[in-house]
Amino acid sequence: MISVGKVRRKGRRYYMRGVAFGGGRRPVGQVLKDGQEMAGLPPGVWRGRGLAALGLTAGQTVTERQMDLVFGEVRHPDADRVERELLDDGAEQEAARRATVLGQPIEEIEQRKQTLLIALDFVFRPQASLVVLWALGDARTRRIIEWAHQRAISKTPRWLEGEVAEVRWASGRQRAKAPALVVAAFRHYDNRNGFPLLHEHCLILNRAQRPDGSWYALDTVRLYKNVVAADTLYTLELTTEVCEELGLATVPREVTPGLRPVMEIAGVDQEFIDWSATRRRRIEDVLEGVTDDYVKKHGRLPGERARHGLAWWAAQETRPDKETPRPLDQLLAWWRVSALLKFGQAMVDGLLQRCQAAGAAIRARVGPWVDTALATVDVAAIVFTVRGVFRRHVLAEARRHLLETLRGRAYVLGIDSHIAVRVLERYGRQLTVPQNGRQIPAPDQLSYTADFAWPSRWWIAGSDGKPPRELTRYERARVASLALQNAIRAALTAPPARAEPPVATTSAASPPAGDHDQAAPHGVDHPGRVAAQTPAQRAAAIHAHQQAAMPQEYLEGRTTDPATWLTSPQNLARLAAFTRASEARGPTVEEQADQTKHAHQTEQAPAADAQQQHHVVQPDQNRGAGSDR
Q1: Residue 260 class from Cβ within 10 Å (0-12 exposed, 13-18 middle, 19+ buried)?
Q2: Is 201 within 8 Å of 193 (Cβ atoms)?
Q3: Contact 281, 301 (CB under 8 A)
């Protein structure tokens, strides 16, 4: 999972004295290297393809002076040496200093009173179940998780460099690809309460080189728009490698009702996750209170944007000062003692064995195959129902589909992009119209929609005196529409494609031209097929595979079998009846409210006349029923 923060010049000292020091508070005057060694913390390292232009190499340690120069003054990390050499060659002081600045000097930006964004802080952290396994597992388990975590982090910036990053100039009117980023990474082991939370801060400098070698600011808006796709790439890579190395599998866990489930490691009980997620429990307690206040004030539950705002406020309210960093060996010992006292030795020592047993049971039912016909329909329906108009969201949803369907199995490299392209080709309708005299938009900047029927508004009955609430976008995606069933049925009953031998996910080949539904290497058959199947046989095989890929507790939700979707005729009839009943009650409730308001005003009128006759002034004398705004 990835979260992104902004590094501004005023707040850069938090990163220099805090993030670089394990999130703690480094004493004033203490050298960063000495503080890291005394606390047993790993030093920060440089990453990214842009290091060669600065004379650095990947994996080189980040020094305190380099941190101050790059993220404090936006200058060359070895500016002192470069400036001294230029002065020795006879250059003037101002010219020598200007030669070490990366792009426009920050003094010029501040003189125009513009907001200076120095870097973006990408924070990578595994799922809660993987954090528990890492904290309580043996040395081999920790090495595998840390190595997979490191590899997934390395792949994500490389994808950003190759597909997303751009520099901009001329007020954003001119752009160019920026395939070389400068990144400083700092690894942390615990959260602010001292419990396990493996995560890594990657500070991406807001500067990159143009092809001519000059430095300009990144298009940070473009980076933000692709954060979800980067998040799903990191999670997919991390989960797949850990599950393949340790023989594990994943199961969906609903963290927030109505929102997407998180694919956690099978066998890690919820009690272990709750034990490690101490901050989440405090945030949820505060969030419940502020949500109740919101309902009392507005008469309804908060929408999606309001929920995000309330959650952010609750997180800030419960944010404690982090304790003094401690070495990993001490943290591991303390975590183990805490877990033993809470769960007992048998539960703690047998955690990995239970996960492997649960993973073996799932892997026996789920093969390493993906049906791209159903994947294309599923991804198209989800992004359309959730977004309506979509662009970069297709790739992120394709990666989610792989994570949910393969359950930790390895996948063919590039299958996510293949599914995304097929979605746009087969179900997408381009909305962006190129205009004469203007630059043609890049392919990833084109907007699309689909021709599925837009689902109606569905409602969930309130409980504990709370009013009904409208379904979230993800719940509406699960409910979807009847058009989704028709699209799935059309995909399953399409004319049979040319027979292809089964393709495992470890092989790669070019897909044959003209094969629309089962294109190799991504269109996958099922084991045991020796001849071409009819559409009905292929549909039955796909149904059996997809049913096996989902656990029993998830069959009621989002699967690729139309009969189990909430959009089955029976479920649609029930939901439509409930919606009609809610809409019918709406006018009645409004009429009752109007009658109550009118009666209240009628009762207040004689009382107001009597007060005026007796010249008695009341605090709320001039306030009517609707004036309290």
Answers
A1: buried
A2: no
A3: no
Kindly report, residue by residue over 328-337, the tens digit of the pLDDT: 888 899 999 9
Count the alpha carbons within 13 Å of 605 in the hemisphere toward its beta carbon.
5
- What lies within 8 Å, CB to CB, of 307 at 6+ separation is none
AA letter at 431: L
3-state secondary structure 374-407: HHHHHHHHHHHHHHCCECCHHHHHHHHHHHHHHC
At 608 the three-state DSSP class reads helix
| Model confidence pLDDT, tens digit, residues 63-106 | 888 888 888 888 999 988 988 988 888 888 888 888 888 888 88
Q: Give phi and psi for 525, each to the nearest 5.
A: -85, -175
Strands 428-430 and 448-450: antiparallel
Q: How far is CA 400 from CA 100, 235, 404, 515, in A?
A: 43, 9, 6, 24
**Quick one: DSSP state of residue 218?**
B
Asked if residues 198 and 125 have their Cβ atoms less than 8 Å apart, the reply is yes
Exposed e or buried b for every residue in 38-48, given b needs 16+ CB within 10 A? eeebeebbbbb
**Is residue 264 within a helix (H) or strand (E), and if so which, with residue range?**
strand 262-265
d(CA 626, CA 629): 7
- Tokens 């306030």 correspond to what residue? 623
> What is the Cα Rg of the chain in Å?
29
Taking only the tens place, the pLDDT of each residue in 573-607 is 555 565 566 556 555 545 555 665 555 555 555 44
Residue 588, number of CB atoms within 10 A of its CB: 9
First to last CA, the chain: 41
Amino acid letter at 560?
T
| Secondary structure class of 299 (helix, strand, coil) | coil
Rounded to an integer, what distance in angstroms lies between the CA atom of residue 432 and that of residue 473? Answer: 24
Burial of 299 (0-12, 13-18, 19+ CB in 10 A): exposed
Q: Which helix (H) or strand (E) holds 186?
A: strand 183-190
Q: What is the largest CA-CA distance in the chain?
A: 99
pTM of the model: 0.74
Rounded (to 5) percent helix, strand, coil in the chain? 50, 10, 35
